[in-house]
Amino acid sequence: MALPETRSEQLARALEDDICAGRALPGMRLDEQVLAQRFGTSRTPVREALKMLAAQGFVEIRPRQGAVVVGLDVRQVLELFEIMAVLEGLCARLAARRMTPAERADLMAVHAECQRLAAAGDPDVYYAMNTRFHEVIYAGSHNRQLEEETRRVRNRLSPYRRNQLHQLGRVAKSVQEHDDVVRALLEGDPDRAESLMRRHIGIQGDGLSDFVSNMSTPQAVSNPPPALAGTLGRPTIVQ
Amino acid sequence: MALPETRSEQLARALEDDICAGRALPGMRLDEQVLAQRFGTSRTPVREALKMLAAQGFVEIRPRQGAVVVGLDVRQVLELFEIMAVLEGLCARLAARRMTPAERADLMAVHAECQRLAAAGDPDVYYAMNTRFHEVIYAGSHNRQLEEETRRVRNRLSPYRRNQLHQLGRVAKSVQEHDDVVRALLEGDPDRAESLMRRHIGIQGDGLSDFVSNMSTPQAVSNPPPALAGTLGRPTIVQ
DNA sequence: ATTGTGCGTCTTGCATGCATGAAGAGGACT
DNA sequence: AGTCCTCTTCATGCATGCAAGACGCACAAT
């Protein structure tokens, strides 16, 4: 069954992964030849992969000037968070109505695991389980398009979220908010589930200023509006 | 200033336009060579354009089997409408808080024009102005990412919306709903604006059954899950 | 010292060539 | 007759080649 995957798709996934995982930092130049050599192919599939990533907003291709990992400034990140909040909110709303008993059990299990890891204290380990928690809810929406869309926005934001949980008390707060969401979901209350999830994702009140001040951690070369992107945070040549 | 546009970008825009405008119907085969000839280029930029469109969900590329315009089945269309509703809802919410006086004036002008055209009676003419109405609200959100995202989903749905307004009384209803939204926007009531917009976009109650029964108008070759897509609505070879 | 000009180098954008794998036609066999 | 198999044909996936545009540097002029 395993449908054959073309090189360009493999490359696109690999590069997207590099970006999401923070191995390719915003502003980093993606040289076609270098990538081609790195992956042992010609430039053609590399170019196709870059085009795909560009179409999804992960990289920016300036004609005749090559591709760089998109660097979002504070404003753009906040914009994406606004989107993320409603998408995840919709996931929760739909999940409240549509999750099967098996999915509900799954949710509870993952949530319990989250609680356990939160108590354990390592934010990075918690982060992984936190991701799974949200994934369960995406799936629970029974809306594939929404699932993909939400995941895509999440991935675009991921370089900027890594450190979010390292703030003091953030993990505990996160898991508490999860708890509220889970309750609403299991009670089948779509309105409350949506509203709670939106609050959970949205950066509000203190969270906002905390986030903004901690942001620009991944050397965010602001690039699109000002035609600089190479003046201050000089596009590091990728290995 | 006019930044140079590469062939592949031109092609991508042209093809997306063909799809949105219904000139390229769902299920239609997009032959690389034919397109290359049609646009007077080699296959390379055509391939890159197709990859971009694939990354955005407009076409589907099955390895070694070429690209086809994505055909959405009823379920997928409804899924996208669910997304669309919250995205447009968010636009309205943000617009209610953020629109400048000039933008508000713009909104009123376009709305008035909508009312005029609705009374005039031609659904297709109204459709164009209706699009502008929504665009004004996208812009009013002052959230570029949201604007693009919403427009993208809208475009994906456009082949399936064309006939929606041809239903008896739909135009009148649409313009009435606009009126409610406008009122909430101008009063600066984000909650109401969002909620009204969600209802406006969402297909609910009668709207749903009406829509579903009228759907599958563009010969929607359901393709992704079942590996057929070529059995019933045989991929028409594009000119 | 700073700014403007010209050249050289390099990367990108696109064209072309070739091999692999898929769809279809035709025939043999059940 | 229907089914399976083989062979042919052809489109796709990828590699390579080539020209144009961008960047950097040196040098000259102010």
Description of the structure:
The structure is a homodimer of 239-residue chains. The first copy, chain A, is mainly α and 239 residues long. The first copy, chain A, folds into two domains: 7-69, Arc Repressor Mutant, subunit A (Orthogonal Bundle); 74-214, GntR ligand-binding domain-like (Four Helix Bundle (Hemerythrin (Met), subunit A)). The first copy, chain A, is 64% helix and 4% strand. Chain A has ten helices and three strands; from the N terminus they run H-E-H-H-E-E-H-H-H-H-H-H-H. In chain A, strands 1-3-2 form a three-stranded antiparallel beta sheet. In chain A, helix 4 packs antiparallel against helix 9, helix 5 (101-120) packs antiparallel against helix 6 (123-140) and helix 8 (170-186) packs antiparallel against helix 9 (190-201). Chain A is globular, with a radius of gyration of 19 Å. The two termini of chain A are 36 Å apart. Chains A and B meet through helix 3, helix 4 and helix 7 of A and helix 3, helix 4 and helix 7 of B. Chain A binds a DNA duplex (30 and 30 nucleotides) through residues 4, 6-8, 31-33, 41-45, 47-48, 63-66.
Structural class of chain A: mainly alpha
Order of helices and strands of chain A: HEHHEEHHHHHHH
Major sheet: arrangement of strands of chain A: 1-3-2
CATH topology of the largest domain in chain A: Four Helix Bundle (Hemerythrin (Met), subunit A)
CATH architecture heading of the largest domain in chain A: Up-down Bundle
Main β-sheet of chain A, in a few words?
A: 3 strands, antiparallel
The overall average pLDDT of chain A, rounded, is: 87
Q: In total, how many domains does the architecture of chain A comprise?
A: 2
How helix-rich are the residues of chain A, as a percent range? 55-70%
Low-confidence stretches of chain A: 220-239
- The CATH class of the largest domain in chain A is identified as Mainly Alpha
